[in-house]
Amino acid sequence: MTENHDLELLQTPGAVFFIFGATGDLAKRKLFPAIYSLYREGKLAEDFAVIGVARRPRTQEEFREDVFHSIQEFCRYKTENDDRFRAFAEHFEYKSLDINNVDGFRELNDQTVALEERYHIPGNRLFYLALAPELFGSVSSNLQKGGMLNSAGWKRLVIEKPFGYDLKSAEELNEQIRQVFKEEEIYRIDHYLGKEMVQNIEVIRFANAFFEPLWNNKHIANVQITLSETVGVEERGGYYDHAGALRDMGQNHMLQMLTMIAMEPPSRLLPEDIRDEKVKVLRSLRPYANAEEVKKNVVRGQYVQGSSRGKDLPAYRDEEKVDPESNTETYYMARVFVDNFRWAGVPFYIRTGKRLPVKTTEVVVEFKGMPNNVYLGKKYKLEPNLLVIRVNPMEGIYVKINAKRPGSESEIEPLAMDFCQSCMVGINSPEAYERLLHDAARGDSTYFTRWDEVATAWSFVDRIAEAWKQDPEGPLQYPAGSWGPKEADQLLAEDGFHWWPVNGQEEDDVVWEVNK
Ligand code: BG6
Fold it and tell me: Going residue by residue through the chain (516 aa), what tens digit of pLDDT does each one get?
């Protein structure tokens, strides 16, 4: 296959991209830079246009300036404000729009038709709603009423999380969108699924002869999934205080990562087959039967004043736009079981939190120890084998194995076979949003969440939220800059395990004195 042929396969068909919420943070930090990277890599040819839509008045020149600055600041490709960039920016237009006004959508349609003619775009339209979910319904309906969906090509709706607040509100939201778009036209973003190493999980599992045979309860002792963040809630206190860690990360990113680890091999590498397997995992999650079960298996915490690297950090309740008596959790950890043949009895420990000591996303698969009656196990204290998948910010994989200490007759020590993808020169992994925009424009929905995944994830999470609502005790406290409530460590210790240190974690932070 020639390089040109590869590029043709990768190239998006001509389309107009509508960015609703074009003056917002997501557009600035992620979407404009993503479009530019796709263009630079030839994945977007000349037959495209972008219309930024927001309420605020903005001239075309001002908008293109915004796009330029966002690329300068956030894109992995830098640009000069030169002829080449100006040619790219010509494809961008702005439309100030009140999303409740259908006439505005008619004007938008006229503007779109003109761009489609100019750039020979065959009527393909991708609507990216970087907006609060409350607005998804009215935007969808006005897109239809304003004639925006009557063009010749395909129409796709790309939407951001949070998709609802619980199952009921998610159903209502889905209902509104489905009045206008078919399920296969809806692309629900979970940006974790766009991360290079999350997608790599599938390849590592299914393309290597030595993992798949071991990938089950006979050989795996437990799986630890950590999504830790050093940041607090920044300027998102208003949203976050309503959502909390469970809804912000737990319902979506964490369960999605778990499905990638736990799913069965799909029968074909097609989006629906892969998503079928993921939804089966979600259906196999053991639901917590009652509030007591939730208490036994789930830890929620909220950060209080603390410090990190010599810097004082405020308590969550003192953050901007947060209720000073808030009981919202900023830390969530759960012991989860996937009740199927492959995973019966294997605990999955999942945790996330704000204001933890390091920013990292990692999966640690801990293998069962060697049987003690084998001579090595009797003679030495062997560490278990680990497979660690580093997702972010470091990308890589390492396998921890036991080997003889060189020159010694009696010592065995764990050593790491480390593949550090981010250390490789010349590797400039695409950003999650780049992949996802690219996939949506090519009609590949593999790494987007289907409605049944969203609904099943909510059913699991709703039981936890419900139990917390009834619990007068509120979240446990942890100092900002620490690893969260100690109860999370105890939960693993009950099963005879401990958290393995994640990348960047000081060894002495770790609780080692656990009997195994
Ligand atoms: C978002 C959450 O979905 O993911 C944020 O709303 C969180 O609260 C972010 O900070 C983390 O994403 P990443 O890619 O930086 O790990």
Answer: 444 555 556 788 899 999 999 999 999 999 999 999 999 999 999 999 999 999 999 999 999 999 999 999 999 998 887 888 899 999 999 999 999 999 999 999 999 999 999 999 999 999 999 999 999 999 999 999 999 999 999 999 999 988 999 999 999 999 999 999 999 999 999 999 999 899 999 999 999 998 999 999 999 999 999 999 999 998 899 999 999 999 999 999 999 999 999 999 999 889 999 999 999 999 999 999 999 999 999 999 999 999 998 999 999 999 999 999 999 999 999 999 999 999 999 999 999 999 999 999 999 999 998 776 666 666 777 889 999 999 988 899 989 988 888 887 777 788 888 888 877 766 677 889 999 999 999 999 999 999 999 999 999 999 999 999 999 999 999 999 999 999 999 999 999 999 999 888 865 444 332 222
| Residues 209 and 170: beta-carbon distance below 8 Å | no
On whether the CB atoms of residues 11 and 20 are closer than 8 A, the answer is: no
Residue 184 in tokens: 């296969």
Task: Write phi, then psi, for 371 (nearest 5 degrees).
Answer: -60, 140
Q: Is 381 annotated as belonging to a binding site?
A: no
Find the 279 Cα to ligand 1 centroid distance in Å: 22
**Any atom of ligand 1 within 6 Å of the Cβ of 47:** no
State the catalytic residue, choosing from 219, 242, 253, 438. 253
- 229 ligand 1 Cβ < 6 A: yes
* Amino acid identity, position 22: A
Q: What is the CA radius of gyration of the chain?
A: 24
